[in-house]
Amino acid sequence: MIVTVTPNPSLDRALDVDRLEVGEVNRAHAAHVHPGGKGINVARALVRHGEASVAVVPVGGADGARLVGLLAEHGVPAVPVAVAGDTRTNITLVESDGATTKVNAPGPRLSDAEVDALLAAVEDELTHGPRVVVAAGSLPAGAGDAFFVRLAGLAGRHNVPVALDTSGAPLARAVRSGGLSLVKPNDDELAELVGRELRTVGDVVGAAREVIAQGTSAVLVSLGAHGAMLVRADGTWWAGGPPLVPLSTVGAGDSTLAGFLAGTGTCADKLRTAVAWGRAAVLLPGTEVPSPAHLDLDAVRVVEEPDPDLPLKEL
Ligand SMILES: Nc1ncnc2c1ncn2[C@@H]1O[C@H](COP(=O)(O)OP(=O)(O)OP(=O)(O)O)[C@@H](O)[C@H]1O
Ligand SMILES: O=P(O)(O)OC[C@@]1(O)O[C@H](CO)[C@@H](O)[C@@H]1O
Protein backbone atom coordinates (compact mmCIF):
# COMPACT_ATOMS: atom_id res chain seq x y z
CA MET A 1 0.00 0.00 0.00
CA ILE A 2 1.24 3.47 -0.91
CA VAL A 3 -0.33 6.51 0.72
CA THR A 4 -0.26 9.74 -1.25
CA VAL A 5 -0.84 13.20 0.20
CA THR A 6 -1.82 16.14 -2.02
CA PRO A 7 -2.20 19.27 0.13
CA ASN A 8 -3.45 21.36 -2.83
CA PRO A 9 -5.43 19.09 -5.19
CA SER A 10 -7.24 20.32 -8.29
CA LEU A 11 -9.79 19.59 -10.94
CA ASP A 12 -7.54 19.50 -13.99
CA ARG A 13 -9.29 20.87 -17.05
CA ALA A 14 -7.47 20.54 -20.37
CA LEU A 15 -8.63 22.22 -23.55
CA ASP A 16 -7.22 21.18 -26.94
CA VAL A 17 -6.90 24.09 -29.38
CA ASP A 18 -5.31 24.19 -32.83
CA ARG A 19 -3.13 27.20 -32.03
CA LEU A 20 -3.39 29.42 -28.97
CA GLU A 21 -4.04 33.07 -29.85
CA VAL A 22 -3.16 35.08 -26.75
CA GLY A 23 -5.57 37.98 -26.22
CA GLU A 24 -8.20 36.44 -28.59
CA VAL A 25 -11.27 34.21 -28.16
CA ASN A 26 -10.00 30.66 -28.72
CA ARG A 27 -12.30 27.70 -29.52
CA ALA A 28 -11.27 24.32 -28.15
CA HIS A 29 -12.07 21.19 -30.17
CA ALA A 30 -11.88 18.86 -27.13
CA ALA A 31 -12.11 19.24 -23.37
CA HIS A 32 -10.89 16.85 -20.67
CA VAL A 33 -11.39 16.83 -16.92
CA HIS A 34 -9.31 14.72 -14.56
CA PRO A 35 -8.81 14.56 -10.80
CA GLY A 36 -5.48 16.36 -10.42
CA GLY A 37 -2.69 17.35 -8.12
CA LYS A 38 0.60 15.50 -7.98
CA GLY A 39 -0.11 12.99 -5.20
CA ILE A 40 -3.50 12.18 -6.72
CA ASN A 41 -1.85 11.48 -10.08
CA VAL A 42 0.67 9.16 -8.42
CA ALA A 43 -2.18 7.26 -6.74
CA ARG A 44 -4.15 7.09 -10.01
CA ALA A 45 -1.16 5.71 -11.93
CA LEU A 46 -0.46 3.12 -9.22
CA VAL A 47 -4.09 1.99 -9.05
CA ARG A 48 -4.28 1.75 -12.87
CA HIS A 49 -1.39 -0.74 -12.58
CA GLY A 50 -3.09 -2.77 -9.87
CA GLU A 51 -0.94 -1.32 -7.05
CA ALA A 52 -2.80 -0.53 -3.83
CA SER A 53 -2.82 3.19 -3.09
CA VAL A 54 -4.92 5.68 -1.16
CA ALA A 55 -5.06 9.45 -1.74
CA VAL A 56 -5.35 11.78 1.24
CA VAL A 57 -6.76 15.14 0.08
CA PRO A 58 -8.31 18.26 1.55
CA VAL A 59 -11.51 19.00 -0.39
CA GLY A 60 -14.02 21.83 -0.26
CA GLY A 61 -17.12 23.09 -2.07
CA ALA A 62 -18.85 21.66 -5.15
CA ASP A 63 -15.55 21.19 -6.98
CA GLY A 64 -14.16 19.29 -4.00
CA ALA A 65 -17.19 16.98 -4.15
CA ARG A 66 -16.64 16.58 -7.91
CA LEU A 67 -13.00 15.68 -7.25
CA VAL A 68 -14.02 12.97 -4.77
CA GLY A 69 -16.56 11.67 -7.31
CA LEU A 70 -13.93 11.55 -10.07
CA LEU A 71 -11.50 9.69 -7.81
CA ALA A 72 -14.22 7.10 -7.16
CA GLU A 73 -14.86 6.83 -10.94
CA HIS A 74 -11.14 6.19 -11.42
CA GLY A 75 -11.22 3.53 -8.69
CA VAL A 76 -8.86 5.45 -6.40
CA PRO A 77 -9.61 5.06 -2.69
CA ALA A 78 -9.60 8.52 -1.14
CA VAL A 79 -9.48 9.96 2.35
CA PRO A 80 -11.14 13.35 1.91
CA VAL A 81 -10.52 15.94 4.62
CA ALA A 82 -13.26 18.60 4.54
CA VAL A 83 -12.05 22.20 4.30
CA ALA A 84 -14.05 25.44 4.08
CA GLY A 85 -12.49 26.83 0.89
CA ASP A 86 -13.27 25.64 -2.64
CA THR A 87 -10.98 23.07 -4.27
CA ARG A 88 -9.14 24.77 -7.15
CA THR A 89 -9.35 24.18 -10.91
CA ASN A 90 -6.13 24.15 -12.96
CA ILE A 91 -6.32 24.86 -16.69
CA THR A 92 -4.14 23.42 -19.44
CA LEU A 93 -4.24 24.59 -23.06
CA VAL A 94 -2.69 22.10 -25.47
CA GLU A 95 -1.93 23.21 -29.04
CA SER A 96 -1.85 20.77 -31.94
CA ASP A 97 1.98 20.88 -32.06
CA GLY A 98 2.02 19.73 -28.40
CA ALA A 99 2.88 23.18 -26.93
CA THR A 100 1.32 23.25 -23.47
CA THR A 101 0.27 26.33 -21.48
CA LYS A 102 -0.77 25.71 -17.89
CA VAL A 103 -2.42 28.06 -15.42
CA ASN A 104 -2.64 26.76 -11.85
CA ALA A 105 -4.98 28.44 -9.37
CA PRO A 106 -3.67 29.20 -5.87
CA GLY A 107 -6.21 26.95 -4.13
CA PRO A 108 -8.01 27.64 -0.88
CA ARG A 109 -6.25 28.92 2.24
CA LEU A 110 -6.27 26.26 4.96
CA SER A 111 -6.86 27.19 8.60
CA ASP A 112 -4.53 25.83 11.30
CA ALA A 113 -7.28 23.41 12.33
CA GLU A 114 -7.64 22.18 8.73
CA VAL A 115 -3.86 21.64 8.42
CA ASP A 116 -3.91 19.69 11.69
CA ALA A 117 -6.88 17.62 10.45
CA LEU A 118 -5.01 16.84 7.21
CA LEU A 119 -1.93 15.68 9.12
CA ALA A 120 -4.14 13.67 11.50
CA ALA A 121 -5.70 11.91 8.47
CA VAL A 122 -2.20 11.14 7.16
CA GLU A 123 -1.15 9.78 10.55
CA ASP A 124 -4.21 7.56 10.60
CA GLU A 125 -3.09 6.03 7.29
CA LEU A 126 0.48 5.67 8.60
CA THR A 127 -0.75 3.49 11.44
CA HIS A 128 -1.78 0.88 8.81
CA GLY A 129 1.89 0.43 7.85
CA PRO A 130 2.06 1.55 4.19
CA ARG A 131 5.33 0.78 2.41
CA VAL A 132 5.81 4.46 1.52
CA VAL A 133 4.06 7.82 1.83
CA VAL A 134 4.24 10.15 -1.18
CA ALA A 135 3.87 13.86 -0.42
CA ALA A 136 3.49 15.89 -3.57
CA GLY A 137 2.59 19.21 -5.12
CA SER A 138 2.45 22.80 -4.00
CA LEU A 139 1.30 23.90 -0.58
CA PRO A 140 -1.87 25.94 -0.19
CA ALA A 141 -1.72 29.19 1.78
CA GLY A 142 -1.94 28.48 5.49
CA ALA A 143 -0.13 25.13 5.33
CA GLY A 144 3.22 26.75 6.15
CA ASP A 145 6.55 26.01 4.42
CA ALA A 146 7.31 23.40 7.10
CA PHE A 147 4.25 21.27 6.24
CA PHE A 148 6.33 18.54 4.59
CA VAL A 149 8.83 18.62 7.47
CA ARG A 150 5.94 17.95 9.86
CA LEU A 151 4.67 15.17 7.60
CA ALA A 152 8.15 13.60 7.38
CA GLY A 153 8.38 13.73 11.18
CA LEU A 154 5.11 11.80 11.50
CA ALA A 155 6.22 9.26 8.90
CA GLY A 156 9.54 8.84 10.71
CA ARG A 157 7.74 8.07 13.96
CA HIS A 158 5.82 5.31 12.14
CA ASN A 159 8.93 4.08 10.25
CA VAL A 160 7.35 4.81 6.89
CA PRO A 161 9.70 6.07 4.13
CA VAL A 162 8.81 9.41 2.52
CA ALA A 163 8.97 10.24 -1.19
CA LEU A 164 8.63 13.98 -1.84
CA ASP A 165 7.81 15.83 -5.06
CA THR A 166 7.48 19.55 -4.50
CA SER A 167 9.38 22.72 -5.32
CA GLY A 168 10.58 26.08 -4.01
CA ALA A 169 10.69 26.88 -0.32
CA PRO A 170 8.77 23.77 0.85
CA LEU A 171 11.28 21.53 -0.98
CA ALA A 172 14.24 23.45 0.42
CA ARG A 173 12.86 23.21 3.98
CA ALA A 174 12.19 19.48 3.71
CA VAL A 175 15.58 18.68 2.15
CA ARG A 176 17.39 20.71 4.83
CA SER A 177 15.49 18.87 7.52
CA GLY A 178 16.53 15.46 6.07
CA GLY A 179 15.09 12.02 6.69
CA LEU A 180 13.62 11.65 3.19
CA SER A 181 13.81 8.39 1.29
CA LEU A 182 13.39 9.93 -2.17
CA VAL A 183 12.94 13.35 -3.72
CA LYS A 184 11.71 13.82 -7.32
CA PRO A 185 12.53 17.25 -8.65
CA ASN A 186 12.69 18.05 -12.36
CA ASP A 187 15.93 19.68 -13.51
CA ASP A 188 14.57 23.24 -13.08
CA GLU A 189 13.38 22.51 -9.54
CA LEU A 190 16.75 20.98 -8.64
CA ALA A 191 18.57 23.98 -10.15
CA GLU A 192 16.43 26.35 -8.08
CA LEU A 193 17.13 24.27 -4.98
CA VAL A 194 20.92 24.44 -5.32
CA GLY A 195 20.91 27.98 -6.74
CA ARG A 196 22.78 27.34 -9.98
CA GLU A 197 22.18 26.28 -13.57
CA LEU A 198 22.47 22.58 -14.39
CA ARG A 199 23.80 22.04 -17.91
CA THR A 200 25.53 18.66 -17.80
CA VAL A 201 25.03 15.21 -16.31
CA GLY A 202 27.82 16.04 -13.84
CA ASP A 203 25.98 19.23 -12.78
CA VAL A 204 22.86 17.17 -11.98
CA VAL A 205 24.88 14.57 -10.09
CA GLY A 206 26.65 17.28 -8.07
CA ALA A 207 23.35 18.95 -7.17
CA ALA A 208 21.71 15.64 -6.26
CA ARG A 209 24.69 14.74 -4.06
CA GLU A 210 24.20 18.02 -2.16
CA VAL A 211 20.63 16.86 -1.46
CA ILE A 212 21.84 13.41 -0.42
CA ALA A 213 24.44 14.97 1.91
CA GLN A 214 21.57 16.63 3.81
CA GLY A 215 19.89 13.32 4.62
CA THR A 216 17.97 12.12 1.55
CA SER A 217 18.63 8.58 0.32
CA ALA A 218 17.94 8.97 -3.41
CA VAL A 219 17.16 11.70 -5.92
CA LEU A 220 15.11 10.95 -9.03
CA VAL A 221 15.57 13.88 -11.41
CA SER A 222 13.18 14.04 -14.35
CA LEU A 223 14.61 15.76 -17.42
CA GLY A 224 11.53 16.17 -19.66
CA ALA A 225 12.28 14.98 -23.20
CA HIS A 226 15.78 13.94 -22.03
CA GLY A 227 14.61 11.15 -19.72
CA ALA A 228 15.49 10.90 -16.04
CA MET A 229 18.41 10.27 -13.72
CA LEU A 230 18.60 8.40 -10.45
CA VAL A 231 21.36 9.50 -8.07
CA ARG A 232 22.20 7.63 -4.87
CA ALA A 233 25.31 7.50 -2.69
CA ASP A 234 26.30 4.25 -4.43
CA GLY A 235 25.76 5.23 -8.04
CA THR A 236 24.12 7.17 -10.84
CA TRP A 237 21.85 5.93 -13.62
CA TRP A 238 20.29 7.65 -16.63
CA ALA A 239 17.37 6.34 -18.68
CA GLY A 240 15.62 7.68 -21.75
CA GLY A 241 14.32 6.71 -25.13
CA PRO A 242 13.74 7.83 -28.70
CA PRO A 243 11.98 11.21 -29.24
CA LEU A 244 8.20 11.28 -28.82
CA VAL A 245 5.56 13.78 -29.91
CA PRO A 246 3.71 14.48 -26.64
CA LEU A 247 -0.05 14.84 -26.48
CA SER A 248 0.11 16.29 -22.95
CA THR A 249 3.09 16.39 -20.62
CA VAL A 250 0.91 17.25 -17.59
CA GLY A 251 1.46 14.69 -14.85
CA ALA A 252 4.28 12.88 -16.67
CA GLY A 253 6.55 13.48 -13.67
CA ASP A 254 3.92 11.99 -11.38
CA SER A 255 3.63 8.86 -13.51
CA THR A 256 7.44 8.68 -13.48
CA LEU A 257 7.47 8.73 -9.69
CA ALA A 258 4.65 6.17 -9.53
CA GLY A 259 6.54 3.90 -11.93
CA PHE A 260 9.69 4.16 -9.86
CA LEU A 261 7.80 3.20 -6.70
CA ALA A 262 5.99 0.33 -8.43
CA GLY A 263 9.19 -0.89 -10.10
CA THR A 264 11.06 -3.93 -8.85
CA GLY A 265 14.59 -5.26 -9.25
CA THR A 266 17.79 -3.26 -9.49
CA CYS A 267 18.08 0.53 -9.54
CA ALA A 268 18.45 0.31 -13.32
CA ASP A 269 15.24 -1.77 -13.56
CA LYS A 270 13.28 0.68 -11.39
CA LEU A 271 14.51 3.66 -13.40
CA ARG A 272 13.58 1.91 -16.66
CA THR A 273 10.05 1.35 -15.28
CA ALA A 274 9.85 4.99 -14.12
CA VAL A 275 10.84 6.36 -17.51
CA ALA A 276 8.53 3.95 -19.36
CA TRP A 277 5.59 5.20 -17.25
CA GLY A 278 6.56 8.87 -17.84
CA ARG A 279 6.96 8.36 -21.59
CA ALA A 280 3.59 6.60 -21.74
CA ALA A 281 1.94 9.48 -19.84
CA VAL A 282 3.00 12.12 -22.39
CA LEU A 283 1.25 10.19 -25.15
CA LEU A 284 -2.10 10.49 -23.33
CA PRO A 285 -4.41 13.55 -23.27
CA GLY A 286 -4.95 15.89 -20.32
CA THR A 287 -3.79 14.39 -17.03
CA GLU A 288 -4.55 10.81 -18.08
CA VAL A 289 -2.25 8.25 -16.46
CA PRO A 290 -0.94 5.18 -18.31
CA SER A 291 -2.08 1.57 -17.92
CA PRO A 292 0.18 -1.49 -18.42
CA ALA A 293 -0.98 -1.65 -22.06
CA HIS A 294 0.55 1.80 -22.71
CA LEU A 295 4.07 0.87 -21.55
CA ASP A 296 7.02 0.23 -23.85
CA LEU A 297 9.83 -0.91 -21.53
CA ASP A 298 11.98 -2.06 -24.45
CA ALA A 299 12.14 1.49 -25.85
CA VAL A 300 13.93 2.68 -22.71
CA ARG A 301 17.73 2.58 -22.61
CA VAL A 302 19.48 2.66 -19.23
CA VAL A 303 23.07 3.80 -18.77
CA GLU A 304 24.95 3.18 -15.52
CA GLU A 305 27.39 5.95 -14.54
CA PRO A 306 26.63 8.21 -17.54
CA ASP A 307 29.43 10.50 -18.79
CA PRO A 308 29.43 13.54 -16.44
CA ASP A 309 30.55 15.85 -19.26
CA LEU A 310 27.48 15.11 -21.41
CA PRO A 311 25.21 18.16 -21.82
CA LEU A 312 21.64 17.35 -20.69
CA LYS A 313 20.36 18.49 -24.09
CA GLU A 314 22.36 15.71 -25.75
CA LEU A 315 20.90 12.91 -23.65
N1 LIG B 1 8.72 15.86 -24.52
C1 LIG B 1 8.92 14.64 -23.99
N2 LIG B 1 9.32 13.62 -24.77
C2 LIG B 1 9.54 12.39 -24.26
N3 LIG B 1 9.37 12.09 -22.96
C3 LIG B 1 8.97 13.08 -22.14
C4 LIG B 1 8.73 14.40 -22.60
N4 LIG B 1 8.35 15.15 -21.56
C5 LIG B 1 8.36 14.34 -20.48
N5 LIG B 1 8.73 13.09 -20.83
C6 LIG B 1 8.84 11.91 -19.95
O1 LIG B 1 8.15 12.20 -18.74
C7 LIG B 1 9.05 12.26 -17.64
C8 LIG B 1 8.68 13.37 -16.68
O2 LIG B 1 8.72 14.61 -17.38
P1 LIG B 1 9.12 15.99 -16.68
O3 LIG B 1 10.54 16.01 -16.36
O4 LIG B 1 8.61 17.05 -17.62
O5 LIG B 1 8.27 15.92 -15.33
P2 LIG B 1 7.71 17.09 -14.40
O6 LIG B 1 8.34 18.40 -14.77
O7 LIG B 1 7.82 16.61 -13.01
O8 LIG B 1 6.18 17.08 -14.88
P3 LIG B 1 4.80 17.28 -14.05
O9 LIG B 1 5.10 18.25 -12.94
O10 LIG B 1 3.83 17.83 -15.08
O11 LIG B 1 4.37 15.94 -13.58
C9 LIG B 1 10.45 12.40 -18.26
O12 LIG B 1 11.42 11.82 -17.40
C10 LIG B 1 10.29 11.65 -19.58
O13 LIG B 1 10.46 10.25 -19.40
O1 LIG C 1 0.31 23.63 -8.42
P1 LIG C 1 1.08 22.34 -8.13
O2 LIG C 1 0.56 21.65 -6.92
O3 LIG C 1 2.57 22.53 -8.14
O4 LIG C 1 0.82 21.37 -9.36
C1 LIG C 1 -0.48 20.95 -9.65
C2 LIG C 1 -0.47 20.24 -10.99
O5 LIG C 1 -0.01 21.10 -12.05
O6 LIG C 1 0.42 19.13 -10.90
C3 LIG C 1 -0.11 18.02 -11.61
C4 LIG C 1 0.84 17.60 -12.66
O7 LIG C 1 2.06 17.21 -12.11
C5 LIG C 1 -1.47 18.45 -12.15
O8 LIG C 1 -2.39 17.42 -12.01
C6 LIG C 1 -1.84 19.66 -11.33
O9 LIG C 1 -2.69 20.55 -12.01
UniProtKB/TrEMBL annotation:
It comes from the Bacteria. Keywords: ATP-binding, Kinase, Nucleotide-binding, Transferase. Residues 9-292 form the Carbohydrate kinase PfkB domain. The keyword Kinase applies. The keyword Ribosomal protein does not apply. Its EC number is 2.7.1.56. It catalyses: beta-D-fructose 1-phosphate + ATP = beta-D-fructose 1,6-bisphosphate + ADP + H(+). Gene3D superfamilies: 3.40.1190.20. Catalyzes the ATP-dependent phosphorylation of fructose-l-phosphate to fructose-l,6-bisphosphate. Belongs to the carbohydrate kinase PfkB family. This is 1-phosphofructokinase. It comes from Cellulomonas phragmiteti.
